[in-house]
Each structure stands twice: as C-alpha cells, then as structure tokens.
Write a structure and sequence with these properties.
CATH topology of the largest domain: ABC transporter transmembrane region fold
CATH superfamily of the largest domain: ABC transporter type 1, transmembrane domain
Number of strands: 12
Strand content: 5-15%
Oligomer: single chain
CATH architecture of the largest domain: Up-down Bundle
Shape: elongated
Length: about 625
C-alpha cells in the first residue's frame, strides 16, 4: 500500500523527454546526450548472457559477414582487372573484360543476398534478446518492495522499460553486425592495399590521425552543447506538463499570458542552444569528407607518379582507390556507431541496476498458508524507518481482537499508513514483530497473507477494461451476479446502471471518465467482492459527498461484521463507531480508547481534534 505522499520521502521528480538531434553530434538513440556506461565490460558480459541460444545464430551472422566482406574486397580487385583489360597496350582484352564484369555482377548480387539474410537474422536475434530482457525486467519490478517505487518517479522506472531497452534493441540489431563488418573491412582492405602497394598504403594512413583528431575536437564541444540543450529541454517540458495539468488554475487566475511568456523565454533559450549545437555538429561530416578527399587526391597523385614510372598499372590505382574508400568508410561508421554503442550499453546498465535491486524477502522455509484468518492482530514493540536514522514508528505495541475495528487518527506524517503497510508486509518491520492469529506474519507465505486483506486506498487506481473487470480484479472468477451484488452493497450499482453500457462501460485512463467519488465506490465494491478476513480502509470515503458517505458507512459496517478492520481517517465522523481509537503522534500511541472515552479527556489530543473539527462556524456580519 503506497503512501499517498511520496514527496515527503524524497522521491525524485524526473522528466524524461527527448527529441531528435541533428547528425554528427554526440547523442543517445532517443535524442538525448550520450550517457557513458560506468562499467562497459561488465555490462557487455552480462548482456551477452541474454543471448542464450542466439549465439549459434550469431555465429551464422558472422559467417555471412565474413563472406560478405570477402565479396566486398573482391569487387575492387575485379574493377582493376577490368581496367587493365581495357588499358592493355595490345588492345582491349574482351575475354578478360567479360569474365571480370561477369564475376563483378555475381559478386555484387551475392553480396546483396548475404546482406539481406544477415539483416533478417540480426532482426530476429535482437528482438528475441530484448523480449527476454524486457520480460525479466517487468517480472523483477513485481518482486521489488514498495520502498523501491517510493524513492523513484514513475517516469524514471518506465523509461527503463521503454527508452533504455529500445536503445539496447537498436544497438544489438544495428551495431553488432556493422561492427563485425567494419572491423573485417578495415583489416581486409589494409591487407589488400599493402599487397598492391605499400607506398600508396602509407599515403592513405596519413589521413587516419586527422580523422580522429577532428572527431575528438568537434564532439568535445558538441557534447557540452547537447547536454545544455537537454537541460533546457527538460525545463521546457516541465513547464508544458505543469501548465497543461494545471490548466484549470491557469485560467481561473488569468495566468495565460504569463504562462505563454515563460514558455517563449524557455523556448528561445532552447532554440539558441540547439542552433549552436547543430552548427558545430554539422561541421563534422563535411570536414571528414574534405580530409578523405585529400587522402584520395594524395593516393591518385602518388599512384599516377608510380604508374608513369612503370611501378604499378592503372588498374592497380583504380583498385587501390576503391580499397582506400572501403578502408576509410568503416572508420567513419565506427566513429558514428560509438555513440550508438555507448547509449545501448548505458541503457543495458540502467536495466541491470534495477535487476540487481534487493527483492522482497522470500518466504521462510516451511512458511504456513494463512487460510480462514480470524483476524486477531498484535503489534509487539514494532519499530520501522525508511532510513535507520529517521524512525517513523518506534516501539509500537497494541492488540486488536478478532472481529473488532480499530481507527488510527493523527496528523499527516504521523505513521498511520505506515502501520498498515507493515501489517500487510508491504514494508518489513526493522524491530519487534507483528502477529496474526498468534503467529508472526513472517511465518506465513506472503501471497496467502495478502489474500487475507482487503484494501481501499484514498487514491483509487482503476485498470484498463470494463467496470465489471475492475470490480472482479481481486476475484477474476466471480460471476456477473456476484459482481452486481458487490456493487449494490457498495452503493455503486445505481450510478453504474445509469452509464450507457452499464457494467460493460470501458474505463479510460485510470478512470478519468468517472468522478473521484465513483472511482472510490468501485474500489469498495472490489474489496467487498474479494471477501477478505481483514479490512484496511485508508481514507476510504474522503472523496465522497456527505450523503453518499452515510450510505457507504452503513455498507462498510455490514462488511465489517465478523471481520477485523483498520480504519484511517481525518474526518472523525467516520470513525466514531470504531471499537477502539488510537491517536498516533510521531510513530507512537499518544492516546487510546473509544470515541466517548477520548472525548471526555479534557485537554486530550483527540478531544482537541474533535473540538476543532466540529467547532461551529460564526458568520461574519456584513
């Protein structure tokens, strides 16, 4: 049962928004600045473990890449043969020319086929790996304690399931084969160039340091600019989200012009930074092209000189120019793949950070199954704190007889919700023990323990599906008649029947097509259908009008008969009939007793709360 206010525990608010960024600059796959992994080798090794049976298919991809690279290296050689056949001093050697051209066409056709099968295999490999990774992460999230979600924003967790895994998918599908092909092409081209002419090879290699120096100089500057751009983009997105979410308040206070003014200022800063980033990143590819062209010119000049002196033929020069292009192009591709690879490994690392989180404690060996719980609850000197140095509950002891109701009241942050979170083992007590029917709750299986509880939260969450689907969420096997009976008991049947499709009415995102009160009525019906042994009502009627509240209270009184009930409420009118009331202050019991007993305590905490809540309001004289 998550607390209603995560912000009080320091949960970070994070906005994950990205837009495409122009070519040439350091960027992640989803448009953000490149985030470098902290442990590149360790993450790669762990990601490799997810390949499983795909390793055989990956070996087939490598064989295709090897064959494809061999055909690619054969092409320039055949071009040189064809050129020499034409440039033969004795005339054109048509037989050699025909054979060279035929072999060239066959090589390019085979190359196209191998490239297709290579891409087809890699697409399947990457999708199956990512499917396993995504399934593992989603399953892991269900095993984590609520403390994990209380300290992270929902957007941050969801980005790991979507953006980060998408980065991994793109990296595996594109970078793996390209990296293998690039490395083989570089090595093969270098060998062929050395075989043709070591002097021309030297002329080609002179440009390599210039390429890396230029790339390093440009990316060092653009990295800072893109990082600044992402920060300003986050500020702009935050303003947009805040304005749209609070549009009612914006209009009510006539703040439209001010909101537009703030947007224009943030938008202008983003445009200015983005322009500088794009200009600098745009320098990279043209300047690389200039360096490469200088290298080709040097090869042509040196080759022409050697050809005139009779050291090499014109065909060798033609082949060498093609090989030099094949040598330089993979270098450029690897430089551009670097950011893709970094983003993918960083995404995998973020996924593995979640996978390494400590899960909820496993059931103890021989744990009992809680069936037909009577509901006798004992808190025995229980302590708990989200952080050891800041206790929320301290040495708490009380007893709730089976079938009785107990109300927890007190100021916000006193520890009321934490108490029921400990009871349901959403959090584990750091001291003391909690007993149900005479046995420590840690000696029950967690599944059977939670099945004994029915929980109605202040903030009701409804899932996609129909109204009937949401009511039977805790009992999927329930019949339509049982669903309608539970809705009637919760006083929800009347408004459901007024809807166009009744119980088959689809629920929009988190029930946005229903009022808060209607959603809470459905939550109460959901719990009634589950028929639990112990009820937990955390501000269960806070969003319901007074008339409906009286009806719900009557329904809840019927539901609580024969069941243990924990009631948390700020409106004291909802808890005055509880068998016992605990006033919680700073994680301790300040007062305990029935409503009448506590009201009679002059100067008592509960008495002051009742007096302030029911104090008559004096009308001002005009």
């Amino acid at each position: 049962m998550p607390s209603a206010n995560n912000a009080s525990r320091g949960a970070p608010a994070e906005s994950k928004a990205t837009v495409p960024i122009g070519p040439g600059g350091p960027r992640g796959l989803r448009g953000g600045p490149v985030q470098k992994p902290k442990n590149f080798k360790g993450t790669v090794r762990r990601l490799w473990s997810y390949f499983g049976n795909e390793k055989r298919r990956l070996a087939a991809v490598f064989a295709f890449v090897l064959a494809d690279s061999a055909l690619t290296l054969l092409g320039p050689y055949l071009i040189g043969v064809a050129v020499d056949a034409i440039a033969d001093t004795g005339g054109v050697d048509f037989k050699a020319l025909d054979l060279a051209l035929l072999a060239l066409v066959a090589a390019y056709a085979a190359d196209a086929g191998l490239t297709f099968f290579q891409g087809w295999l890699m697409a399947g490999i990457s999708q199956r790996i990512v499917e396993r990774l995504r399934s593992s992460l989603f399953a892991k999230l269900h095993k984590l304690p609520l403390a994990f979600f209380d300290t992270r924003s929902h957007g941050e967790v969801m980005s790991r399931l979507s953006n980060d895994i998408d980065n991994v998918s793109t990296t595996v599908s594109q970078t793996t084969a390209q990296l293998m092909s690039g490395l083989i092409a570089i090595a093969g081209s270098l060998v062929m160039m050395l075989a043709l002419s070591p002097l021309l090879t030297l002329a080609t290699l002179i440009t390599v340091p210039l390429v890396f120096l230029l790339a390093r100089t440009i990316t060092k500057r653009t990295k800072r600019l893109f990082k600044e751009q992402q920060a300003q983009l986050g500020a702009l997105n935050g303003h947009i989200e805040e304005t749209i979410s609070g549009m009612l308040a914006v209009k009510a206070f006539n703040r439209e012009d001010k909101a537009i003014e703030q947007f224009d200022g943030l938008n202008a800063k983003l445009a200015e930074t983005g322009t500088r980033a794009q200009i600098w990143s745009g320098f990279l590819m043209p300047l690389l092209g200039v360096i490469n062209n200088i290298g080709f010119a040097a090869v042509a000049l040196a080759g022409g000189t050697l050809a005139v002196r009779g050291h090499i033929t014109v065909g060798v020069i033609a082949s060498f120019l093609s090989y030099s292009r094949q040598f330089v192009r993979p270098l450029n591709d690897i430089a551009s793949m670097y950011n893709t690879l970094q983003a993918g490994i960083a995404g995998a690392e973020r996924v593995f950070e979640v996978m390494e989180q400590e899960e909820e404690a496993e059931d103890v060996r021989g744990a009992a199954v809680l069936q037909g719980a009577k509901g006798h609850v004992v808190f025995d000197n229980v302590s708990f704190g989200y952080r050891p140095e800041v206790p929320i509950v301290s040495n708490l002891s009380f007893e709730v007889p089976a079938g009785s109701s107990i109300a927890l009241v007190g100021p916000t942050g006193a520890g009321k919700t934490t108490i029921v979170n400990l009871l349901t083992r959403f959090y584990e007590a750091t001291g003391g023990r909690i007993l149900i029917d005479g046995k420590d709750i840690r000696e029950y299986t967690r599944d059977s323990l939670r099945r004994a509880f029915g929980v109605v939260l202040q903030d009701t969450y409804l899932f996609s599906g129909t109204i009937a689907d949401n009511i039977r969420y805790g009992r999927p096997e329930a019949t339509d008649a049982e669903v309608k009976a539970a809705a009637a008991a919760a006083r929800a049947d009347a408004f459901i029947r007024r809807l166009p499709l009744g119980y088959q009415t689809p629920i929009s995102e988190n029930g946005s097509n229903l009022s808060q009160g209607q959603k809470q009525l459905l939550a109460i019906a959901r719990v009634m259908l589950a028929n639990p042994s112990i009820l937990v009502l955390d501000e269960a009627t806070s969003s319901i009008d007074t008339r409906t509240e009286l009806q719900i209270q009557a329904a809840l009184l019927d539901a609580m008969k024969g069941r243990t009930a924990f009631i948390i409420a700020h409106r004291l009118s909802t808890i005055r009939d509880a068998d016992r009331i605990l006033v919680i202050e700073r994680g301790r019991i300040a007062e305990a007793g029935t409503h009448d007993e506590l009201v009679r305590k002059e100067g008592g905490v509960y008495a002051r709360m009742v007096a302030s809540q029911f104090k008559p309001v004096r009308a001002r004289a005009n």
